[in-house]
Amino acid sequence: MPRVSVIIPTYNCARYLGQAIESVLNQTYAAKYVELIVVNDGSTDDTDEVIRPYRSRMTYITQPNRGISGGRNGGVKVATGDYVAFLDADDYWLPERLALMLKRAVASPDCMVMTDVFVLNERSGELETQGNCEAKGLTPLFDLNARDQYVAALKANFLNYMIMVPRDVFARVGLFDKSLTFGDDWDFELRCLEAGMPVRLVPEPLAVYRLYRPGATTTRPDVSMAASRLRILEKHRTSVSAARWKTALGLRDSLLFQQALQGRKFFFATQIAVKLATNRAYGRHLLRQRALARRLRVSAAADAAYR
Question: Do 255 and 173 contact (CB within 8 A), yes or no?
């Protein structure tokens, strides 16, 4: 049976970490073939106390804070499994996830494998009853070849970070980019696709992804996030459409504009506003977003009236 290394990077996530660890240790796949690696990326909370009961059943690494990419890379460097899978400390898996992913991996050699996920809204406490990929109509994308998936993922990222890959892929495409503060998983997956490694889907939702967790980077859009997105697209500039590129520039400049206003840097804000006014692609993006927001408000009002 193939061995799999599961890497959980964690930074000040003690509140959720135990559930993530338990979800790996309770997999139906034979425990002797599962190597759990937890990377404490400079946490200052009670992470060590949470880890203590599980120390004999895992590899535990502590390191200075290097960000999510540094945590993932720290785990990859010591992993010994045939495959490597990733789980963030605030998410968790359902018991059959590894078994079904490995079954698909054996049937589809030299592929990335992921499963559909349930989304747990931390603000409302509601857990979706339908898989995220199914709900968004993304399932057909996973039957495409690597090149077509690469083009699709550059247009709009349809992947999640919870992939499983053959361990030797890191020797081929490199580790996670530590210079990125956001989207290091997207960047890594794009490199895998560019190298000819497609991603295949186990359609069952077999993981739970927390949305809007307090302190999570994805709930705090900022200039560094927009800059990371732009840097990723720049790596693949020859494959990115002009409109997509200009929209990414507009998103970054919009955040810079907000930051300049908040800092009362009005001359700088005026310069950015001029750039935004001439960015037609970003203007079309804003119009689409506003139209979508209006449709959602109308739909919500209709639902409320019906109730």
Answer: no
> Residue 29 to residues 4, 76, 165: CA-CA distances in angstroms?
10, 21, 17
Q: Which residue has the tokens 């955040």?
A: 255
Our separate counts of H helices and E strands in the chain read 12, 8
What number of other Cβ atoms are within 10 A of residue 150's Cβ?
A: 22
CA trace torsion 90, 120, 6, 107 (10° rounding): -170
Report d(CA 269, CA 158) in Å as an integer. 33
- Tokens found for residue 288: 């689409």
Residue with tokens 């010994």: 80
Q: What is the dihedral of CA 65, 69, 74, 79, to 10 degrees?
A: 150
CB 177, CB 184: distance < 8 Å: yes
Query: Across residues 4-22, what is the average pLDDT?
Result: 97
* Amino acid residing at 74: G
Structure-token pair, residue 241? 């459409």
Question: What does pTM read for this prediction?
Answer: 0.79
Tokens of 202: 């186990």
What is the helix (H) or strand (E) element at residue 188, kind and residue range? Answer: helix 184-194
Share above pLDDT 70 across residues of the chain, in percent, rounded to a whole number? 73
CB atoms within 10 A of CB 268: 15
Q: What proportions of the chain, in percent to the nearest 5, are helix, strand and coil?
A: 55, 15, 30
> Could you give the CA distance from residue 93 to residue 289 in angstroms, rounded to a whole number?
33
